[in-house]
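REQUEST ID: PR-0412
SUBMITTED BY: lab tech R.K.
PRIORITY: routine
TASK: structure prediction, single protein chain
INPUT:
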Amino acid sequence: MGGAIMLVLLFKIAYDIGYFDAQSLKNKQNAELPTTQPVLTMESAQRIVSGALKEDPTTPKTIVVEIIDNNHKLSTIIIENNNLKRIAWIIDMHLFFTNDLFNDAGYNLTEGIEHEHNIKRGDH
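STATUS: complete
OUTPUT:
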């Protein structure tokens, strides 16, 4: 009976050591993951816009004028083409669109930002 208890204790100790080694490896791997969020730069925004519009990236017709809200999930930018400015959106640092965007309460975010930055809706 005493041998069985010793055997169980030995297995328990081996299990605990293995568990703690696995946990420390997992914590070490988590610590090595990057904690910074990607940042949209003027250059990266221009590449996204030029690629979406299939323009030559070295001489684009549509220029990114300003990054209004630099959020890696939904960034708001101002683009200009033929002296006409528009509000545009970049989603998840790679999708681009220029249509109206509404929040969950039905407010047109595009119109609000156009008003803040004195961009006339008739310009586009």
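NOTES: Helices lie at 2-32, 42-52, 109-116.
REVIEWED BY: pending
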